């Protein structure tokens, strides 16, 4: 499935004045594309993702989907940061949550989830509660939950930001494998340029608030990729280019606003 | 290894506590036996224990105890269940909260025992007003903690439920109920203490049976030893109920981190 984001704007009204978070964002994803969105903090990346997920309504514009759904289930599934897993459910019930909301019976849920749980190395922990898991494992539970739900498009909001550097590398590689194996589209929000180049087919650079599209960059690194490719000259060239664009925006965001 | 050391530490602390209690009782016994205090005002622990056994054997103490326990639990459960229902409804629906908030804010801080004459006036005498007062006392702590419990649920869990298409019912059973349970249980613990307090106080003032009544009648007939028996039994009852609730809490909230 493809996501079509058509002239989306979002205005937050507040007592201290209105804040235009997004202005005229338009883009479309391709089938099974890995799209990364980078931008300075506060540029509305998360707002955009929440609008695509249906958790927020855009002030203007609309989100539509094209193509046929591979399975029944929701079109999109959000992967939150690690605290998105329910502390009161064990690993199995967390992973199966997307099936449970659709009324799938317990037996069928467990049967559907087990292969993925094994693949993600969680099989020994299905009866454990999240507080007994490391943050890397919690994030894998969140990822497994999104995959099991059958959504075609995974929406990820800096899912690995809270992890330590080593765990992040491991999960990035796992995500690359999953993207290849399960034929999902991914929209991935991050402020980490290297992560965006490593994972993405295409990178959208956003401006400082109000968030608009500043640049679109195609990542022409070959797949399958792994985390060892980060020293290639092409990688470094791309990183310099993107950082140049973001730096402008970060600096612009730091200027005192004349209001 | 670490767990073993921690266990040893806990054991050591338990021993110290037991020794401290034994020392206090021994000092008390000695103070009475050596005539440092008048045994008519402060009977020795052994006298109180003997009196407790005698009253238990005669069936008098068990009768009072069972009457107090019966009233207490009837009021506690009626009040708690009502508090749970109204509290969760108020926590979940802003409209319901707005409607009931003035009434709750008005009655919550009022010592419920002050309503006793009014309640007798409205309900008549007998078991009705006693149980109603206890139920009122249990109702408010459970209600207030349920409201707080729902309010304290991280909004991210509602986002997750919404994103995975959970129905209102599923959101209630899978997010609202378990998410508010730890705080609601803290409310139930307060309600437990409140119901024991109110049971004794109401029996003291209008009862003819029950531990509170036994206490008051013993005072009026100047049977000091019986006063002590009643006090000791009430104290042990409070201790025991709190301990049992602590055990039950651990079963009901297995996702709580061990402290």
Core attributes:
heterodimer; A: 259 residues; alpha/beta; 3-stranded antiparallel sheet; 9 strands; 36% helix; globular; B: 259 residues; mainly alpha; 10 helices
Radius of gyration of CA atoms of chain A, rounded to a whole number: 19 Å
Work out the strand percent of chain B: under 5%
Oligomer, anyone? heterodimer
Measured between the Cα atoms of the first and last residue of chain A, the distance is: 43 Å
Helix segment tally of chain B: 10
Largest sheet of chain B: none
Distance between the termini of chain B: 17 Å
SSE arrangement:
The complex is a heterodimer of chains A (259) and B (259).
Chain A: E1 2-12, E2 19-28, E3 34-38, H1 45-52, E4 60-66, E5 76-79, H2 91-95, H3 97-100, H4 106-119, H5 135-148, E6 153-157, H6 165-182, E7 185-190, H7 193-199, E8 202-206, E9 213-218, H8 233-254
Parallel strand pairs in A: 3-7, 3-8, 5-6, 6-7
Antiparallel strand pairs in A: 1-2, 1-4, 8-9
Helix pairs in contact in A: 4-5, 7-8
Chain B: H1 2-33, H2 45-57, H3 60-92, H4 94-107, H5 116-123, H6 127-151, H7 155-163, H8 168-206, H9 211-220, H10 224-252
Helix pairs in contact in B: 2-10, 3-4, 3-6, 3-8, 3-9, 5-6, 6-8, 8-9, 8-10, 9-10
How would you briefly describe this protein structure?
The complex is a heterodimer of chains A (259) and B (259). Chain A has 259 residues and is of the alpha/beta class. Chain A contains eight helices and nine strands.
How would you characterize the overall build of this protein?
The complex is a heterodimer of chains A (259) and B (259). Chain A is of the alpha/beta class. Chain A has helices at residues 45-52, 91-95, 97-100, 106-119, 135-148, 165-182, 193-199, 233-254; strands at residues 2-12, 19-28, 34-38, 60-66, 76-79, 153-157, 185-190, 202-206, 213-218. In chain A, α4 packs across α5 and α7 (193-199) crosses α8 (233-254). Chain B is mainly alpha-helical. In chain B, α3 (60-92) packs across α4, α3 packs across α9 and α8 (168-206) packs antiparallel against α10. Chain B is flat, with a radius of gyration of 23 Å. The mean pLDDT of chain B is 90.
């Amino acid at each position: 499935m493809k996501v079509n984001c058509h002239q989306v704007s979002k205005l937050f009204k507040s007592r201290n004045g209105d804040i235009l978070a997004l202005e005229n964002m338009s883009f479309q994803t391709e089938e099974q594309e890995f799209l990364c969105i980078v931008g300075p903090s506060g540029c509305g990346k998360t707002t955009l993702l929440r609008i695509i997920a249906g958790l927020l309504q855009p002030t203007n514009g609309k989100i539509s989907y094209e193509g046929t759904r591979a399975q029944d289930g929701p079109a999109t599934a959000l992967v939150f940061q690690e605290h998105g897993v329910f502390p009161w459910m064990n690993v199995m019930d967390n992973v199966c949550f997307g099936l449970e909301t659709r009324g799938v019976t317990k037996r069928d849920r467990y049967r559907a989830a087990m292969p993925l749980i094994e693949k993600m190395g969680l099989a020994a922990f299905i009866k454990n509660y999240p507080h007994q898991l490391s943050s890397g494992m919690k994030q894998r539970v969140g990822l497994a939950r999104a995959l099991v739900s059958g959504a075609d498009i995974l929406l990820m909001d800096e899912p690995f930001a809270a992890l330590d550097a080593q765990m992040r590398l491991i999960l990035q590689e796992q995500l690359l494998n999953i993207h290849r194996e399960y034929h999902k589209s991914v929209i991935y929000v991050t402020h980490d340029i290297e992560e965006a180049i490593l994972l993405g087919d295409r990178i959208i650079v956003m401006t400082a608030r109000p968030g608009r599209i500043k640049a679109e960059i195609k990542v022409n690194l070959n797949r399958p990729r792994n985390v060892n490719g980060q020293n290639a000259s092409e990688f470094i060239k791309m990183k310099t280019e993107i950082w140049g664009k973001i730096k402008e925006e970060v600096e612009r965001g730091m200027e005192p606003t004349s209001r | 290894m670490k767990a073993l050391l921690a266990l040893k530490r806990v054991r050591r602390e338990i021993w110290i506590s037991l020794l401290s209690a034994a020392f206090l009782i021994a000092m008390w016994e000695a103070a009475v036996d050596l005539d440092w205090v008048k045994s008519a005002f402060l009977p020795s622990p052994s006298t109180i224990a003997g009196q407790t056994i005698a009253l238990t054997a005669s069936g008098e103490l068990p009768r009072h105890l069972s009457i107090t326990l019966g009233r207490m639990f009837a009021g506690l459960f009626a009040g708690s269940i009502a508090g749970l229902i109204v509290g969760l409804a108020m926590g979940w629906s802003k409209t319901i909260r707005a409607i009931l908030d003035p009434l709750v804010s008005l009655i919550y801080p009022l010592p419920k025992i002050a309503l006793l004459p009014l309640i007798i006036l409205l309900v008549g005498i007998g078991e009705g007003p006693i149980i109603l007062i206890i139920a009122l006392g249990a109702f408010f702590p459970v209600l207030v903690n349920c409201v707080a419990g729902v309010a304290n649920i991280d909004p991210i869990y509602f986002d997750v439920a919404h994103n995975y298409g959970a129905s209102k019912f599923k959101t209630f059973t899978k997010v609202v109920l378990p998410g508010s349970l730890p705080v609601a249980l803290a409310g139930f613990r307060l309600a437990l203490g409140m119901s024991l307090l109110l049971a004794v106080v109401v029996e003291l003032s209008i009862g003819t049976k029950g531990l509170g009544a036994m206490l008051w009648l013993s005072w009026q007939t100047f049977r000091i030893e019986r006063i002590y028996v009643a006090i000791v039994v009430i104290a042990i009852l409070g201790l025991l109920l709190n301990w049992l609730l602590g055990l039950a809490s651990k079963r009901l909230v297995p996702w709580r981190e061990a402290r």
